[in-house]
Amino acid sequence: MNVPENLKYTKDHEWVKVEGDEATIGITDFAQGELGDIVYIEVETLDEELEAEAVFGTVEAVKTVSDLFMPLSGTIIAFNEDLEDAPETVNEDAYGSGWMIKIKLSDTAEIQNLLDAEAYTSLVTG
């Protein structure tokens, strides 16, 4: 299982890369592995301001559909449109070209609530 040290994580298996007052968000390598082959990603919240833990979209795999949760409060400023034609990119490169959204943070203090790589690894390995 790949858990990059430079990212933050949520208990809902999202990863967050914070750069100033913006963040890039996707699902973790563990999450894509549990979901299996991803066939569709829906994000209809572009340009909306959402609170932390609100649902920002869904990911559909062959076996299941799962909600995607905002790890931090903010406005969704970008959706990775490449995923519309190639949702399997999330399976192939969860932390790179498989990113899902970018947000403008409304409260950078919330970053303290996220897990570091060590805490996330403990969460998924029990």
Description:
It is a single chain. This protein has 4 helices and 9 strands. The chain has 126 residues and is α+β, with helices and mostly antiparallel strands. A 6-stranded antiparallel β-sheet has the order 1-2-3-9-8-5. Strands 4-6-7 form a 3-stranded antiparallel β-sheet.
- Range of helix content: 10-25%
First-last Cα distance:
14 Å
Rg over CA atoms: 13 Å
Find the CATH superfamily. Answer: RNA polymerase II/Efflux pump adaptor protein, barrel-sandwich hybrid domain
Helix and strand run: EEEHEEEEEHHEH
Largest sheet: 6 strands, antiparallel
Please report which band the strand proportion falls in: under 5%, 5-15%, 15-25%, 25-35%, 35-45% or over 45%: 25-35%
Shape: globular
Number of strands: 9
Keywords:
alpha+beta; OB fold (Dihydrolipoamide Acetyltransferase, E2P); six-stranded antiparallel β-sheet; three-stranded antiparallel β-sheet; 4 helices; globular
Give the arrangement of secondary structure elements.
Layout: E1 8-9, E2 14-19, E3 22-27, H1 29-35, E4 38-42, E5 49-50, E6 55-61, E7 65-69, E8 74-79, H2 82-85, H3 89-92, E9 101-105, H4 117-125
Antiparallel strand pairs: 1-2, 2-3, 3-9, 4-6, 5-8, 6-7, 8-9
In short:
The chain is α+β, with helices and mostly antiparallel strands and 126 residues long. The longest helix has 9 residues. The protein is globular.
